[in-house]
């Protein structure tokens, strides 16, 4: 049986010298995990593996020596390269292309690339073999699949939950890295099911990191536990502060995880958790149902437009947020549905304005996310008082 290779998200990342490009071929960048440069890039034009080096910067004639750069084992001796140990530059090269990164990282596949600054390169991740157990990650060893739940729980209890250290080397980062490394191997499902068991742990910190995991990996096995918990007794989540975020509760974090689940589909091709998301949007728990507006606009556009009035009736203060998230989603809706989605948005915006459910400033904030022709259609249907955005007073 052919081993499934793990591909870096976005075709692989090009990173500067402040971010890692690991030596281990099993390490890669999974969406939801920390930015990591790909160490297995291959050029689709010349067929060579892409080489990279931190601290190197090409002199003016370096582009004339690409084949030498690919072949040379000692870049520091090459006269057409500059090197500085403390530099933020990282040089990438194959036999036909050269690229330098500094103070940035780039996706090789980007849905909305910057035409001026982003790379247009024929390089892509060629895949990474999955890791096997036992595995040591950041000093923590998992010896077997039977150890997973205990090791994961202990790691989620340790270390900071907020701040730079948590972002760089916290429990959430460790867990995301563990799952990514074992993805494609026999232990992949065991990891995510162990995390799902942690969703009902007595310790809020453990529950919080488990919820965060399923926000990052909504397709992972065990993610259906998010719906089960929202449908059932929420006493472990309602009113309980989420120690991994500021000014939020675990119930709100559960709804964020539910919103992410709407971006995945079941065997019938329908967005997962659709009925539950609709119910939450209509009921209005008041703890964070706003995260559902964007995915509902994206995946369930007709329903959201048809039920917007009822949603707003439950909590009138959500009108502007709903319209704004609808406008943002228009840029991400698949081409075959976008014309109809535009019509629904225009009708909704006009209706909310005429019914005075939103202010002039709120309307213009949402319209600022739209194409010019949509803004014109909305404003032309309204009287003069809606056509000029109020100026903010000078301080």
Chain-averaged pLDDT: 90
Helix-strand topology string: EEEEHEEEEEEEHHHHHHHHHHHHHH
User: What would you call the shape?
Assistant: globular
Helix coverage percent: 40-55%
Q: How many helices in DSSP terms?
A: 15
- How do the strands line up in the largest sheet? 3-6-7
Q: What can be said about the biggest beta sheet?
A: 3 strands, antiparallel
What structural class is derived from the secondary structure elements? mainly alpha
Low-confidence stretches: none
Specify Rg, calculated over alpha carbons.
Answer: 25 Å
Q: Report, as a whole number of angstroms, the end-to-end distance.
A: 68 Å
- The total count of strands amounts to 11
- Total separate domains: 3
Share of β-strand residues: 5-15%
List keywords for this structure.
15 helices; globular; 395 residues; 11 strands; mainly alpha; two-stranded antiparallel sheet; 3 domains; three-stranded antiparallel beta sheet
Folded structure, characterized:
The strands form five sheets. This protein has a three-stranded antiparallel β-sheet with strand order 3-6-7. The protein has a two-stranded antiparallel sheet with strand order 1-8. The chain is 40% helix and 9% strand. It is mainly α and 395 residues long. It has helices at 66-71, 148-157, 164-169, 171-182, 188-198, 204-216, 224-231, 250-261, 274-283, 293-299, 301-314, 319-330, 335-354, 360-367, 372-380; strands at residues 13-15, 41-43, 51-54, 56-58, 81-83, 90-93, 98-101, 105-107, 123-125, 135-137, 140-142. It is globular, with a radius of gyration of 25 Å.
């Amino acid at each position: 049986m052919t081993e499934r290779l793990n591909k870096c998200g976005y075709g692989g990342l090009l990173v500067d010298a402040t971010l890692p490009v690991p030596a281990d071929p099993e390490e890669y960048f999974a969406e939801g995990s920390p930015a990591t440069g790909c160490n297995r890039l291959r050029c689709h034009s010349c067929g060579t593996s892409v080489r990279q080096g931190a601290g190197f910067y090409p002199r003016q004639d370096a582009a004339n020596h690409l084949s030498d750069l690919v072949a040379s084992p000692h870049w520091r001796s090459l006269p057409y390269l500059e090197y500085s140990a403390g530099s933020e530059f990282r040089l990438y090269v194959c036999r036909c292309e050269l690229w330098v990164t500094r103070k940035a990282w780039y996706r090789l596949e980007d849905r909305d690339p910057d035409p001026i600054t982003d790379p247009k390169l024929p390089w892509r991740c060629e895949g990474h073999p999955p890791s096997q157990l036992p595995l040591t990650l950041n000093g923590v060893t998992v010896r077997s699949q039977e150890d997973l739940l205990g090791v994961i729980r202990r790691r989620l209890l340790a270390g900071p939950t907020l701040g730079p250290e948590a972002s760089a080397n916290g429990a959430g980062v460790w867990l995301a890295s563990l799952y990514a490394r074992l993805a494609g191997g026999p232990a992949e499902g065991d990891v995510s099911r162990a995390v799902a068991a942690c969703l009902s742990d007595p310790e809020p910190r453990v529950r919080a990191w488990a919820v965060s995991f399923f926000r990052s990996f909504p397709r992972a096995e065990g993610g259906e536990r998010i719906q089960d918990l929202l449908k059932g007794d929420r006493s472990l989540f309602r009113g309980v502060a989420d120690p991994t975020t500021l000014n939020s509760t675990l119930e709100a974090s559960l709804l964020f995880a539910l919103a992410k689940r709407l971006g995945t589909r079941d065997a019938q091709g329908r967005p997962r958790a659709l009925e539950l998301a609709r119910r939450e949007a209509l009921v209005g728990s008041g703890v964070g149902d706003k995260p559902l507006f964007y995915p509902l606009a994206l995946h369930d556009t007709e329903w959201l437009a048809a039920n917007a009035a009822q949603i707003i009736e439950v909590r009138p203060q959500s009108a502007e947020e709903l319209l704004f998230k609808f406008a943002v989603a228009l840029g991400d809706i698949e081409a075959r549905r976008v014309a109809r989605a535009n019509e629904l948005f225009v009708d909704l915006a006009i209706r909310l304005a005429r019914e005075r459910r939103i202010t002039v400033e709120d309307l213009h904030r949402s319209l600022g996310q739209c194409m010019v022709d949509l803004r014109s259609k909305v404003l032309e249907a309204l009287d003069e008082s809606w056509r000029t955005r109020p100026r903010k007073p000078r301080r």
